[in-house]
Amino acid sequence: MRAVQITEFGGPEVLRLADVPEPAPQPGQLLIDVTGAGVNYADTHAVEDSYLSRSTLPMIPGGEVVGTAQDGRRVVALTATGGYAERACAWEAMATEVPEEVSDAAALALVVQGLTAWNLLRTSARIAPGESVVVHAAAGGTGSLAVQLARRFGAGRVLATASTKEKRDLALSLGADEAVDGDPEGLKERLIEANGGKKVDIVLEMTGGPVFDASLAALAPFGRLVTYGLASRQDPTPIQATALMGRSQAVIGFWLMHALGRPELHAQPMAELLDLVAKGELVPQVGGTYPLADARVVHEALRSRATTGKLVLDPRR
């Protein structure tokens, strides 16, 4: 079968189309004919072996697929690896049936990014009605859903950051009250100004480095900064416990892997998200669907921050 495989670690240049053996499902697994494979920023880390979990070679990247299982059900599933291919295996517990009203791309937008956005707000930040929420990279797959969910969960003020006017306009159209430039220079001041001169209650942060530092500086007493990525590939300034104590702040890490296998953090939110999309009350942003052979191009665009919304590879093309 056709798949994108890497035989060495590196940047997008190591992604190559190859003919590989078809995967064999283990007991308890589904074999899925893939109609769409989601592309996540975490995939770029996996390809260079810089993610939280280590990668092994040779590897077919891709942790999320949508398609038809051998029993005829249309499902979206987490796969860990192996998604950029014509067929993939997934554990039954990691697969969810997709309502016919939900497109392939919309389903893929939910299985990692939607669940991440839901858990960032509900599980990690424990959002309370009326609180202000900063969503960085608000035009991206996770950010665009977090803006909508923050509004739905009762945020008093939703503040978005993005790198271009077009992306900021998108965030505003999705329900953000204000949208500001995400450049770290002057970011603290822009966030406070956008919040009416007050420090903010919640920040969803996935860039790291100086953006993390500026976000923490903009956080109010009893505020929570939830970190879930390192897109800049720069660690923030080390945090001192006494500084957190002195400002009554919390810094919380989130990795979706810890939510899997817990129905209240995985299966139940996934059902809720799919229902909202089916009813038109949550709108995943789709950045584009590309042929499988374009995986390298998609990774390059993702790393350069030139994309918005969910990116999908179609193995049938």
Write the layout of secondary structure elements.
Elements: E1 2-5, E2 16-19, E3 29-39, H1 41-48, E4 64-69, E5 74-78, E6 87-91, E7 95-97, H2 104-124, E8 132-135, H3 141-152, E9 157-162, H4 165-173, E10 178-181, H5 187-194, E11 200-205, H6 209-217, E12 219-227, H7 241-247, E13 250-253, H8 267-278, E14 286-291, H9 295-303, E15 310-314
Parallel strand pairs: 8-9, 8-11, 9-10, 11-12, 12-13, 14-15
Antiparallel strand pairs: 1-2, 3-4, 3-6, 3-15, 4-5, 5-7
CATH topology of the largest domain, which one? Rossmann fold
Structural class: alpha/beta
Classify the beta-strand content into a percent band. 25-35%
Poorly predicted regions: none
Dominant shape? globular
Main pleated-sheet profile: 7 strands, mixed
Number of strands: 15
